[in-house]
Queue: 2 jobs
Job 1
Amino acid sequence: MKGSMRKLPSLAREKWLNEPRLQKVLGVLNTGGQTRIAGGAVRNALMKRPISDVDLATTLSPTDVVQLARGAGFGVHPTGLEHGTVTVVNRAAAFEVTTLRRDVETDGRHAVVLFTKSFEEDAARRDFTINALYCDARGKLYDFTNGYADIRRKRIRFVGVAAQRIEEDYLRILRFFRFHAAYGKGRPDAKGLAACKKLRKGLTQISAERLRQELLKLLVAQGAVAALQVMAKAGVLGQIIPYTDEWRVMKRLPSDDILRLMALAKEPENLKEKLRLSNAEADRIKAAISAPQITLSLREKERRALLYHLGPQAWRDSVSLSWARSRASLADAKWKKLLRLADRWAKPVLPLTGKDLLSVGFQAGPDMGAALQKAEDYWIVSDFTSTREDLMRLVKHE
């Protein structure tokens, strides 16, 4: 594979690269082989994006990485030895160090790999060219796939033959659209798009957990809605979930993965099973979709009552969805005020308790529960102004 090894910029002056803990790890590992920063950190540095994790690729075997790291006093965690990955920790800074690999067998979900000492072979097994760049400790770039040219063009392109990369792991179909939404510009790469469309049924082989992870990341990307529309047209989105075509609504929603997922899904009540959502995520969706349509015509008293029943998160979600579905401007002051109500209002506490009812002769059981419910309903209708004494008189006259 020939790459663009000419006219590459240097990252020598990057603050993150010159961070002492990273340089110390690189220095130790480079005593026994070649170790370079790989993938996302290099890509983001070139695209002027924030850098979170710094991953390293090395010619060293995992055993040699462990030996050198421990000898230098670093923390060592064999987090993925079967894949050649060791996590090295230097003064609370953690770096995943992975031995260079090449694929020898794939089945669309998993790969059997062999270790190699060739960075070019390692680059050849990566998904996209923008993720296949390397940088050494001095900031010199290594580009075997013309990834830097694609970074400059904001183009997401598979390494090598698109269909071959996808057949190695069908999740790459979803990743293609996610990376395009986050890093791309304009229409997706034609060859990549055609391959994704042709092989889209392979997504049925991917676990719900992996689909969930990629889809939620896609939903908060800058170009999420445009990417989803292309996915829908190509028949890819329908392989993941039944979806609506509320594209206008989604464009108007905040960049919130679960909120956008509610608007996207045709059957949001089935998402927990479909995508293996967490209990908290599923509960949030259930609360929002069961809430009534919220409008500006609600009186102040009605707003407080509804907020009390829904809770702050479901209120914000319901207001956001109702606002997005309305014809109002996203700068509308009245809708902003409605949304902020949950931030300014502390949930009141019913001044009557079961202990109070026991003191006036109620027995624990259904009758006492019904009395408490009636008292709470009355208290809410009073705009939370009824006192304990008011409510005691109410239930005693039952």
Job 2
Amino acid sequence: MISSKAALLVTAAVLAVTTAASGQTAFDVWLNPQLGELDVELEYDGRAHFNADVGGQTAQMHMVRHGFRVRAPVFQNERDEWSVTLRAKALDIDTDARIPGTCTPFPDHLWDIGAGVTYRHRFDNDWIAGADLSITSPSDQPYNSVDEVNVRATAFARIPHGESNAWLLYLNYSNAREFAPGIPLPGFGYQFEATDSLRGLVGLPVTALHWEPIERLTLEGRYFVPRTVFTRISYRVLDEVRLYAGYEWDSEHYFRHDRRDNNYRLSYYEQRVVGGVRVEFNEHVTVDLLGGFAFERFWFEGENYGDRDRHRLNLDDGPLLRLQLAVRI
């Protein structure tokens, strides 16, 4: 269970921003050709991993994750759009494991609390340009010092090509990126809508596809360079109920406040297969309940993925449960 101090921190972060949330990714917002139509959105994502043996140690690990995200428009019309996002994530860890190579006890709690702002502008030629800035602190002691702060900034442009397609350009900076941290990196993509049932994005760092080959059946996929994958196959059994299955691969990264090297990050990687049900109670409230099996799970502390075999802590494969709630106002 999360300590009372942890619960108070998360509750305070959420109550401070009860006017905003986002079930959309940042890319979804940037790709939207319409301005002035943002809703207030609030999202909760809870995930539980059951006890798993820790490789090479006489210990087990149990993890419970609570995530809150809120996005709201501050000002919007057909030409300009300002929105704010606030997020809080708490990872509660029950384990006697130690970080290999350091004999340091594994943290009981990890946090990621921060805020961001996004601006978009439509020009007379229908080009859309903007910027996104966020400051978070993924750490066992958030905002303990500047060494536990993650700054992410992206400039982007959407250039229309035909009636519904567009070229996309990005320039991204992050001091905690999985690869090349602290170096501004460009990106590009082509957004297309081939038919009413087939649309997508081809480019770097993101490629995505949404296809409805027959009525009620949907195939979705998204790949973020270099190691983030999301896939779904879903079928709408009722107007309000959808069943789905999929494969996911992602990671999390934290700055321990007392790490021996400020360039080190405590990273967690996991692959999983999931299945679940989505219930759309109305146009404002959606609930997802998922079960799954996680594999290829490990923690390590180092500068980048190339250090994954140093200070590494392997976890046995195991089941997981997940609950997601999205509210749009």
